[in-house]
Amino acid sequence: MDIKEIQNLIKFVQKSGVEEVKIERENFKITIKTKSASPQNIIIDDVPKPITIPTSHPTSNAVQETIQETPVLENDNNHVVIKSPIIGTFYRKPSPDKPSFVEVGQKVSKGDVICVIEAMKLFNEIESDFSGEIVKILVDDQSPVEFDQPLFLIDPS
What we know:
Blueprint: H1 3-16, E1 20-24, E2 29-33, E3 51-57, E4 60-67, E5 80-83, E6 88-91, E7 107-108, E8 113-119, E9 122-127, E10 132-137, E11 143-145, E12 150-155
């Protein structure tokens, strides 16, 4: 291997994210190791679960707090739930200086824009699938939302 091939191999290993590569030939050996900035675990799960966050406490170093990610909805057959179609950041307003799309008690029609969810620098208008009255807004403005997370309760009557 010449120096150009070794440089290209190093660049390839860095881009690929592999931590170590060993090559052995008759007349030489080469080992390339890269440092991982931080280990990343990505878990995708359709069902929101409580997450556990370690916190420090004066009396114990291993105190755990459990946080429920999504609110638990009562089984209410009179209301329909509008859920997030994507993962992103929930916005109630089209811009900071404009009024909210909808408020509790407001009537909406099918197809009305009720919020915006930002995902990957794109603002996606979320439309109501139902006509009715907004009973409850389940997410705070500028909060992260997950796929299929309940956003609004609507009374379709």
